[in-house]
Design the sequence.
């Protein structure tokens, strides 16, 4: 008889046992570990600030969906959901104009799930409410690991049907072509490099973004004009900060290009807030010619396979200096 495998058991851990207090423990932990929430929400989430003042109140967390550039707010609690926190969630939404509103708690009452479902069904396209149950587990004597579960999410298909039927006549051929291209690119990323992005939604713009790991800096696939590019984009709202970070990479230009395996285009863009470092597509491209999409998708992926590790290596060197 074959020897049977020896397995451990997963042991639930109460949220309060891991995060004793909401503001100093859970909120600050989530600020530093946004990727856990990114994975479950299916977006590239960058959390930028805790305890943001909204009138006389303090919003737990605020950040950005990097793919759309829209605001995300998060309300946390470490006990079963209550009416008070639902009211706070809506108050903060009114004061920050977010597109994504997230409520995190260990347990959701049925009436609060129903309230979020109602909001998802009766708000305009582009406004989304999520309910996330937070918990932790351990295996034998291991450190606890977060175990989040999505219990409320928007019915994107229903909302999309309402808007696409009305908006399809307003979708330009170029927007439709971009949407098709980015769907192909994101599908390829999910197959080959799912660690690059948690985003699931496509875009009608001429660019999509991927997280870099530092606030205000991200990767972009760009398809504007006839010469697409892969870029590292320094895009915070502070021009001096962008220039400073850009110059740090510029100081490592030779090493960066050696790691990448080719020359790169360094654009300080003095007349704008942002800066970029880019690799350009070597051919003339027309996004309206869908026969060209496969070749560009392949180029995006293979270029990022070189560009990403090279820039991440320089990022680590800069951090160590």
Sequence:
């Amino acid at each position: 008889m074959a020897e049977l495998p020896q397995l451990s058991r997963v042991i639930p851990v109460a949220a309060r046992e891991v995060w004793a207090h909401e503001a100093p423990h859970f909120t600050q932990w989530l600020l530093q570990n946004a990727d856990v929430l990114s994975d479950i929400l299916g977006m590239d989430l960058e959390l930028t600030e805790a305890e943001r003042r909204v009138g006389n109140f303090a919003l737990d967390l605020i950040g950005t969906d990097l793919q759309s550039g829209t605001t995300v707010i998060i309300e946390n609690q470490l006990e079963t959901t209550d009416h008070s926190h639902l009211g706070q969630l809506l108050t903060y939404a009114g004061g920050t104009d977010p597109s994504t509103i997230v409520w995190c708690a260990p347990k959701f009452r049925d009436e609060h799930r129903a309230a979020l479902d109602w909001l998802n069904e009766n708000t305009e396209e582009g406004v989304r409410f999520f309910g996330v149950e937070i918990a932790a587990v351990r295996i034998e004597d291991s450190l606890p690991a977060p175990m989040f579960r999505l219990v409320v999410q928007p019915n994107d298909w229903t909302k999309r049907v309402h808007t696409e039927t009305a908006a399809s006549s307003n979708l330009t051929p170029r927007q439709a072509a971009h949407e098709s291209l980015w769907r192909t690119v994101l599908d390829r990323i999910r197959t080959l490099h799912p660690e690059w992005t948690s985003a699931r939604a496509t875009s009608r713009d001429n660019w999509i973004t991927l997280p870099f790991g530092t606030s205000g800096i991200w990767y972009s696939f760009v398809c504007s004009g006839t010469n697409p590019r892969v870029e590292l984009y320094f895009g915070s709202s502070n021009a001096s900060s962008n220039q400073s970070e850009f110059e740090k990479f510029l100081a490592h230009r030779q090493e960066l290009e050696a790691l990448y395996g080719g020359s790169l285009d360094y654009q300080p863009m003095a007349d704008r807030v942002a800066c970029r470092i880019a690799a350009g597509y070597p051919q003339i491209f027309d996004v309206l010619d869908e026969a060209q999409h496969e070749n560009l998708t392949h180029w995006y992926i293979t270029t990022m396979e070189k560009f990403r590790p090279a820039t991440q290596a320089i990022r680590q060197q800069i951090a160590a200096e």
Remarks:
- The longest helix spans residues 293-320.
- The chain has ten helices and 14 strands.
